[in-house]
C-alpha cells in the first residue's frame, strides 16, 4: 500500500464516482460510492482537515485501485 495525495485521490474519485463523507452522528470519515442514509456528504476540504486532525492518510494498493484510510506513517 502506498500513501497517495488528496489530488491523486480526487482523480481516482472522479474516475469511480466516489464521494468524501462521514458516518452520520460521528466524526469517522470515509469515501463512498453509493449513497446511503448512514453517510453525510462532506467537502474535500473538510475530508482533508479531518484526516490531518486524526493523523490519517489515504493509501492505495499498488496492484489495484483499492483504497484504505489508515494511520499516517
Which helices and strands occur, and which strands form pairs?
Layout: E1 2-4, H1 6-16, E2 19-23, E3 29-32, E4 39-41, H2 44-53, E5 56-60, E6 67-71
Antiparallel strand pairs: 1-5, 2-3, 2-4, 5-6
Description of the structure:
The chain has 73 residues and is an alpha+beta fold. It has one domain. The protein is 29% helix and 34% strand. It has two helices and six strands; from the N terminus they run E-H-E-E-E-H-E-E. The chain has helices at 6-16, 44-53; strands at 2-4, 19-23, 29-32, 39-41, 56-60, 67-71. The strands form two sheets. It has a three-stranded antiparallel sheet. It is globular. The N and C termini lie close together (12 Å).
| Structural domain count | 1
Largest sheet: 3 strands, antiparallel
Tally of helical runs: 2
Structural class: alpha+beta
The whole-number mean of residue pLDDT values reads: 94
**How many DSSP E strands?**
6
Using the CA coordinates, give the radius of gyration: 12 Å
How would you summarize this macromolecular structure in one to three sentences?
This protein has 73 residues and is α+β, with helices and mostly antiparallel strands. Helices cover 29% and strands 34% of the residues.
Task: State the main characteristics.
3-stranded antiparallel β-sheet; globular; 34% strand; 2 helices; single chain; alpha+beta; 73 residues
